[in-house]
Amino acid sequence: MEITFLGTSSGVPTRSRNVSSVALRLPQRAEIWLFDCGEGTQHQLQKSGLKSSQIRRIFVTHMHGDHTFGLMGLIASCGLAGSGQPIDIYGPKGLKEYLFAAAKYSYMNFGSRLKIHTVESGLLYEDKEFSISCQLLKHRVPAHGYRVVEKDRSGMFNLEKAQALGIPPGPIYGKLKQGEVVTLEDGRKINGKDLCGQPEIGRKFVYCTDTVFCDGAVELAQDADVLIHEATFAHQDADMAFEKMHSTTTMAAQVALLAGVKQLIMTHFSPRYAPGNPIQLDDLKQEAKAIFPQTKLAYDFYTHEIPRRREEKNKKVKVAT
Amino acid sequence: MEITFLGTSSGVPTRSRNVSSVALRLPQRAEIWLFDCGEGTQHQLQKSGLKSSQIRRIFVTHMHGDHTFGLMGLIASCGLAGSGQPIDIYGPKGLKEYLFAAAKYSYMNFGSRLKIHTVESGLLYEDKEFSISCQLLKHRVPAHGYRVVEKDRSGMFNLEKAQALGIPPGPIYGKLKQGEVVTLEDGRKINGKDLCGQPEIGRKFVYCTDTVFCDGAVELAQDADVLIHEATFAHQDADMAFEKMHSTTTMAAQVALLAGVKQLIMTHFSPRYAPGNPIQLDDLKQEAKAIFPQTKLAYDFYTHEIPRRREEKNKKVKVAT
Ligand SMILES: [Zn+2]
Ligand SMILES: [Zn+2]
């Protein structure tokens, strides 16, 4: 799982930061899932080296233009390039109507490969490897955060070791593979976990924007490996944050802290903190780190890999009783 | 009058060419008139150093997305930047509906400063200095070319010389300033033209895209100082040009020749001629130059100044009879 930031400015593009978009690359299935798609996202994809032909799903947080105005161009270019992959787009009420209106007046025909889903808080999608859910946040217009959860993989069963222990063939193996404790006919108790490699814990990626501090974000971000949270404003501009229903650095850090995430990456910065201004992005970083040390600031084309992880020692182990 | 190309690729952006947009800067009034506005035009404006706060009019040729998908972002950014200048947008049927639909679903409010005009062939706008007309071209969907005409300015009247000739004060001066021949009471005939500097001929700028070769383009481009004409395809790809109703290089050159323009600048090139392909842009240039030598190829950020010009010697002079 690899995250690439394609736009990290709020509202308007600046010379160095485009408006919102984040690509989540899933190398194991050669797919990209895109989160938001501000104007110029297809240009940023081109510069990043990511292949837009790999885009399989697009999740839209809310309908403000700095998160959506790149959708039509991207869809058109995916079609023109002849790649013709199916694309599922998820977003709030109005997204479907917007896309169909824009297509109509632009003489575009989506065909059948584009599916548009209107989201509500809850589970959106699930397959063998992943599930995605969303949660309503708190913005001037309906905005949803998204949570991608990779399912846990059980550790590899050591068949040789089982055979060496003289465990007779049969349904016992199934139980052992599940990590259960079984009693053999000769009275020996065998713990399946001793025969399995360490399970691999699925990764959790959470994307929260645009929102002022809210419980929904904390809930959505529980135990995430990476939480991307907007931090439009510095702490001292909290008035503006409340007025415009955006977050300050300290709100983002508090969400990370309360949700017990491993890494916070802040994004969606107001252009008012660009170099040359009294408060700058490094100040924003320090403010957040004072509350949540594992904080990074996103910048355009920053790529962050979420490593696979094994079960932790202190994690409660499931044992059959 | 200064032209800056902001996008010169057809259909999709490439790494070096964005989709269509051309800025016409009118330094005498600190205004920019924009022709087409593909996705990323506001980014290109930012890079070009042109001030989007100076944009006063936007002319849209047709509703294909590579000419329009940058409109909403640009309008939003002009508003957010607080510049709040009034903007008049001209374009075909459907433009108004498109913009209002996009605004509605994006929770945007244009307010009163945005005026959207639906164009039909003929005069669109006129003031003391300029007039703008448009003409239907020949594309898969309704597309209009635009012609900007600067009005002629009469030469400066030499008052000192008139007084030295002993011309008595009175309405005679008004006639002389118009370049008329007047007879003084003492019988002398004075030609007003001899007392006026050379008139300045207004400049003519014509923008034709998207279109296959058509008489409308020839008519619109009559005597233009600069004709910008699309040349999506090389001559050998004329089949595709006819099928998609785009122009080849030779069509663009023929329009320039038949219209008697001074300078042809070709744009809207298919990405198929990018470096590394069998036919390249230099080939397209040679094809056009064989027919119309005063041909240039546009590239992103290319700036072309249209100089003021004085009346030509062989031009018919208006003399009062
Ligand atoms: Zn927003
Ligand atoms: Zn077109």
UniProtKB/TrEMBL annotation, chains A, B:
Pfam families: Anti-Pycsar_Apyc1, Lactamase_B_2. Binds 2 Zn(2+) ions. It comes from the Bacteria. InterPro entries: Metallo-B-lactamas (IPR001279), RibonucZ/Hydroxyglut_hydro (IPR036866), RNase_Z/BN (IPR013471). Its EC number is 3.1.26.11. It catalyses: Endonucleolytic cleavage of RNA, removing extra 3' nucleotides from tRNA precursor, generating 3' termini of tRNAs. A 3'-hydroxy group is left at the tRNA terminus and a 5'-phosphoryl group is left at the trailer molecule. Its cofactor is Zn(2+). The active site is at 66 (proton acceptor). Keywords: Endonuclease, Hydrolase, Metal-binding, Nuclease, tRNA processing, Zinc. Residues 202-269 form the Metallo-beta-lactamase domain. CDD domains: RNaseZ_ZiPD-like_MBL-fold. Zn(2+) 2 binds at residues 66-67, 210, 268. SUPFAM superfamilies: Metallo-hydrolase/oxidoreductase (SSF56281). Zn(2+) 1 binds at residues 62, 64, 139, 210. GO terms for molecular function: 3'-tRNA processing endoribonuclease activity; identical protein binding; zinc ion binding. Belongs to the RNase Z family. Zinc phosphodiesterase, which displays some tRNA 3'-processing endonuclease activity. Probably involved in tRNA maturation, by removing a 3'-trailer from precursor tRNA. Homodimer. This is Ribonuclease Z. It comes from Waterburya agarophytonicola KI4.
